[in-house]
Amino acid sequence: MLKQTPLNAKHHEANAKLVDFSGWEMPIHYGSQIEEHHIVRRDAGMFDVSHMLPVDIKGEGVRPFLRRLVANNVDKLQTTGRALYTCMLHEGGGVVDDLIVYFMSESWFRLVVNAGCADKDLAWMDEQREKLAPNLVITPRRDLAMIAIQGPNAASKLWAALPGTRDLAAAMKPFHAVVVGEMFVARTGYTGEDGFEVMLPNKAAPFFWQALLEAGVKPCGLGARDTLRLEAGMNLYGQDMDEGVTPFDAGLAWTVDVSGERDFIGKDALLRLPRNRQLVGLKLLDRGVLRAHQAVFTPQGEGEITSGSFSPTLNVSIALARVPVGIDVGDTIEVDIRGKRLKAAVVKYPFVRNGRALV
Amino acid sequence: MSIPADLKYTKTHEWARLEADGHVSVGITHHAQELLGDMVFVENPTVGRNLAAGEECAVVESVKAASDVYAPIAGEVTAANGSLESAPESINKDPYAAWMFKLKPSNSAELDGLMNATSYAAHVESEAH
Lengths: 359, 129
Description:
The complex is a heterodimer.
Chain A: H1 8-13, E1 17-21, E2 24-29, H2 33-42, E3 45-48, E4 53-58, H3 62-69, E5 83-89, E6 95-105, E7 108-113, H4 118-132, E8 137-140, E9 144-150, H5 154-161, H6 166-171, E10 177-180, E11 183-186, E12 195-201, H7 205-214, E13 218-219, H8 222-231, H9 267-272, E14 277-284, E15 295-298, E16 301-311, E17 316-324, E18 332-337, E19 340-347, E20 352-353, E21 356-357
Helix pairs in contact in A: 2-8, 5-7
Chain B: E1 8-9, E2 14-18, E3 24-28, H1 30-36, E4 39-43, E5 50-51, E6 56-62, E7 66-70, E8 75-80, H2 83-86, H3 90-93, E9 101-105, H4 117-127
Antiparallel strand pairs in B: 1-2, 2-3, 3-9, 4-6, 5-8, 6-7, 8-9
């Protein structure tokens, strides 16, 4: 039996095509994935991401606990509401999950973790809590729904849907969150566009969704979310990284802070392990579509595509691939696509940001 | 779901239409394009290629996945629809107008072995369960 979000009935009303996503019945599209993709790049779309799990950590000393728990340094979080993207590693340096940490106060940090990792993450965090900070309280917030409103017109349509929030939406800085009554509003996202992620009580979610619909925000499925995040060069857990790869192998060195004395879980392994793989962007030069798991051939050895698709914005196929170090932007490599060796250019990613093609 | 009565169908979701000149046009069904979603790439067989019935001969790819297309009957490829290369979305818009390739049948009686609209509808129904 698949789990359902509080917006399930709204998806049925809108004739969504629903699929099993990590055990959740989620909309893959509402008619056309490509149209939904363009709506987010050009106007404003919304995604039901209630399958993701907010986790509150409260009590004395959350910050020292998180200094140890995650690979990025939570000391970068000094202003209330500030968000930080980070990986949580196991001792061997592999990625348990990637997540966002919001700093709300010294006694309240909120994490948002992936749906498919939620149970594993909670068990892992609880194990660490018992060892390091037994006084802390970790609360999974399944009572909250989450809606992402994304696109260049997300801010204006959000305040149209929530009268009285115009000044608030205008004042919110990227990668910050504020609490407004029962809502937790963050200026974050997974599309490479401006936008908001709003967490609110399950019961209120269908009403908010309806208000957004009436403000002209179009429902978009997880299909478009995937092509949008790929164009934005954002990693997907389970594809671009997992417990078998380190953040360095997954293009996430920028999220790991190994400087200074801080000893986080996985740090020793990261400093010890050879760095012989890297994540690069690919743009297909021949006709075809790059897909995850296709083999990549380079002068330095073989690699593999971790995420690949057709880019609706660029009208060409793009991918993220894990290849040996020594391969650089500007190189041409080959990909095995259905038994044929096709040429692809190694390019800098993100491929697209704020509606603009970068490659 | 749209399943025109005047076409023949395969279990692998191709349609075949006997044209007035004796050639057979081939495409994928409404159901197939709906399963795959937005089309982004089509690779057709080259003109002149001889195909056996059931032979893998073309590829359609949507944003979601790649799918093989099989020859419904044996024959020689006499035309490939080049307009699908630049506009693969035509398959989503009107799958029965968006023919992919045409065959000169080795034996047009093979068409009788394909499913009619009623059997194909039942086949689609059976796959849904």
